[in-house]
Amino acid sequence: MFSADLLANAVVSGLLLGGFYAAVAIGLAIVFGQLDIVNIAHPAFVIVGSYTAYIFNTTFGFDPILVGVAAMPLFFAVGVAIYRLYYAAFERTGQESLSGLAFFFGLMFIIEVTLILAYGVDYRLVSAGYSAQTLSIGFVDLPGRMLVPFLVAMTLTAAVWLYLSRTFMGRAIQAVAQDRGALQLMGADPVRIKQWAFGLGIATAAIAGALLIIIGPVEPSVGRQYIGRVFAIVVLGGMGSIQGMLIAALLLGVTENLVSTFYGPSWSPAVAFGVLLATLAIRPAGLFGR
Amino acid sequence: MSALLEVRGLAKRFGGFTALEGITLDVAPGERLGLIGPNGSGKTTLINCVSGALFNDEGRVVFEGRDITRLPPFQRARLGIARSFQIPKPFRSMTVLDNLRVPLEYAAHTRTGQRRAEDEAMRVLEIMGLAARADQNSAGLTQVDMRKLELARAMAAHPRLLISDEAMAGLSGAEVDEVLEILFKLNAAGITIIMIEHIMQAVMRFSQRVVCLDAGHIICEGTPDQTVANADVQRAYLGA
Amino acid sequence: MRGRGFWAASAALLAAGLAFTELADNPYYFNATYVVLQALIMAVAWNILGGFTGYVNFGSAAFFAVGAYTTIFLQKAFGLPLPLMILAAGLACGLIGLGVGYLTLRLKGVYFAIATLAMGIVLETLVNNWSYVGGAKGTFMLTPDEHLWFDSYSEMLFMIMLVLALGSIAISRALSSSRLGRGLAAIRDDEVAAECSGVPTLRLKLVSTTVMGAMMGVAGAPYPYFVTYVDPISAFNLFIAVNAIAMPMIGGTSHWAGPVIGALLVGSAQEVITVTISSELNVLLVGIMLVLFITLAPQGIVGLARKHWRKRS
User: Fold this and answer.
1) pTM for this model (two decimals)
2) Domains by residue range for chain B, with CATH
3) Residues of B with CB below 8 A from C183's CB?
4) Which B residues in the span 53-72 are in contact with C, Cβ-Cβ below 8 Å?
5) Angle at CA A68, nearest 5°, toward A209 and A201?
6) Which of A29, B26, C146, C290 could be stapled to A106 by a disulfide with Cβ–Cβ 3.0 to 4.6 Å?
């Protein structure tokens, strides 16, 4: 039962899966990891990204990833709008703990139910050229529908990391997390920076959604499985650390896949949350936390 | 007479940054102690360690002969250590009166029914000059009244040691006098007071003894006049 | 509501409920009010931790479902009478509340909220894989023959829920004006200041989560008999969790009457919409109302009423 073949494939596909998870979590790593905004609706936005890719793929035949990239500006704008609402209603008045959480919870719910009303609960798929192909290296199989999202996810993660560490706005985002006051003294407006960061976080959901629907069929409630995963990844990786997030994502992907392969897929939803609870109980700062 | 509060070799670090090191200090019962030092010298960190909001990494804190180093803040409050906060933290959903009921009912153990706690709270408010505001919501107070509420709440806990953290920052001369008068009254009633202040004239008038911190170390200890004349203290503040 | 007024009103409501069971025949009324009362207990329970103490619980459905599955398990294993099962459910869920609280309440409120989500999914997965209580396929509960002096079993369930609802409101009301309640409010307003005022914050928070958990378990205990078929998807339904948050927030979280008002208004509206328009739309509307109220009227209906009276006087 524990053949090397099976184990190697489980680990490799776990890594591919984990890489994809990084793409889903990166938006939250920015918004929650840097800005302390608990956007539990982030996976719901990813599902919206999936449906966006689905619509343009089935209607016009566009490649889902291209749709995702093209949709980024729109998602960015939506993110900005939502942050402005969140700021006006909660952050300015200091209510963000209770009401802010409930706000995003309500938002997540609205998105999911709207999708159900619009598209029903049937699973939706896309077709892309590489979905059916498989690259084989030795006894290890790399299915196209996992490998391509993995590569795109790695690119996205690297791009965001470079953005945060090399550009002015990126560094401002990191700064606003650490010291609002100093930032204000330097003439930068923390609200505009956070707005930009939040928009960026939602924009990544456009791509992540496209990747998600390439990997497997999607229906509105799928987003909920990812809540646990993304929070587990961001918390395990350590707030504010993109590298930590990536490592945590890969670890989670491998763990989930191993559990699924050897104990059955019905246990995998619990893995992420189990990891999260364990991290919170043992080392809440995560692997690389600030 | 043994000290009310003994701090021995206290150290506190945040990651690689050492906020406090080698702090050794005695506070006698009934004393008025001033704690001064430039910004970032560790004053608030020290009182956080004494009140329990932070746990020190090294050293001991002994209160009335009892080692309280590992006790959580609420137990230290029950033993008689009260503190006010630099930035007032009122219980915003409650009236001024109810703000005082919390420490009365918890730190000071007044559990004998609603009537007693309310009367006691009113008594404290009268001392503080806040009696007129008793039924007002605490979130809508003026700055000086908020500072007084902070002290009133600390007093409602029936402390033996009261630590006032920059209670007078940003107040006018007359307001400073008001607060100072209250602190003198409390001390006359037997409460030991540690005052952290930047307003030098208040520290000079109030303190019997002054301790000066700089960069996490005690650099001087003595009477107000001695402290002001001390070269290290001058250097710390003026950076010469 | 002053003491005697409250108890008088409760007695009157109980009497009215009994009269209702004698006079009315159509089971629809009893079923509809059962649903509203169930939501009311959940809302009141949520508010003890959410409104009174300031910690958000996203996993309300999990407590509810564990209550339901405790009943299913005990029915299969021992065939106990319903009151004992309600008690057992309360105990089990109280312990779970205590456990989750102990693991996470020493961290920031945010982590507690996420942990409640986590706990929900973990418990759902466990139940899904537990074939004794039906697993993912679900399980059927036969309606017992015994229904005391009532005309039907659903009438008896309605009365049981009414008693439980009034009981939970009484507990919540007593809590809010007690020393314990003031301690919880201090924690909600400023936990550090509360701790420094002598409030044993961890202990009180654990009490709060335990009471909330137990109440939610009690709300869920009769559920299997009400629906006769239970599966994890319906028991752990997110909608239960959303309602548990939306109703107190719409009604007003700082007062014990807030969740009651919220549950009665929103619950009734939901019944009407489900029957007249559609159940999916009903679900969407709750989400929208929640977001609207949070952003525009964070103090809820109770808060709006207070502002109105203040302006008047």
Assistant:
1) 0.88
2) 1-39+51-71+217-240 (no CATH), 72-175 (3.40.50.300)
3) 102, 105-106
4) 53, 72
5) 65
6) C290
